[in-house]
Amino acid sequence: MPRFFLLLAVILTALLSTACPAQTAATNTARIAAQLPHDASAFTQGLLFYDGALFESTGKYGHSRLRRVNPDTGAIDRQISLPRRYFGEGLARVDDRLFWLTWRAGRAFVLDANTFEQLGTRRYDGEGWGLTYDGHHLIMSDGSATLRVLDPADFTVVRRIDVHDHDRAVDKLNELEYIDGEIWANIWYSDRIARIDPDSGDVVAWLDARALRDAVAGSDDINVLNGIAWDAEAERVYLTGKYWPTLFIIERPGREASTGEAR
């Protein structure tokens, strides 16, 4: 008889797990507030807002560039290129310095944010994808479900953040932005952005940005959603993608996620 009840319990557990899939964080829908011009030849890797301008890094060997861009017109005010052997990746600002990652070279370039003069380099293991700054440390992605928290002085790994949505690891973390105590992360080959608690690694909410892709659907050669910039003073979130002709300003979702709708 005990074996019968044990078997019954196993069957009921299996049925319940099938009927009730693992809970996931709530999803907000991105709502477009404005559309601005964006360079459709830019394979966008990193994006940030500083001193009234957008700073954008682009990728591809022989086409990796850093530029300062007027967000309203898309005009490029200043631009430099990486040597052809480097594939540019994520970008972050620490005070008046820019940190620009490369994909597989294990090297980050440190530049003056105003002049783009090179000030030095940093070394790291593995691949570099996205980069952001939380006011104390740099946070770097490499396409996995783990973010590295780095000391800007020498890129020493201070700690690691394992990102998960309840009990499921969230990998393919790409371009990053730190917004009001959260890490926002593009998910490679996805139209979703994860909003991550930097202390626990929990995804506190998802942002569904399919409306943005729909808005550029008629354009040739558009690639993945990639590029998040935060204008803290105006509380504006800028989003774009690789080879997208449009830069979007979206209505910022509230800190408390709603179910299926933006707030």
TrEMBL record:
The keyword Mitochondrion does not apply. Transmembrane segments: none annotated. Residues 1-22 form the signal peptide. The keyword Signal applies. It holds the Pfam family Glu_cyclase_2. Keywords: Signal. SUPFAM superfamilies: YWTD domain (SSF63825). PANTHER family: GLUTAMINYL-PEPTIDE CYCLOTRANSFERASE. It comes from the Bacteria. The lineage of its organism: Bacteria, Pseudomonadati, Pseudomonadota, Gammaproteobacteria, Salinisphaerales. PROSITE patterns: PROKAR_LIPOPROTEIN. One of its GO terms (molecular function) is glutaminyl-peptide cyclotransferase activity. This is Glutamine cyclotransferase protein.
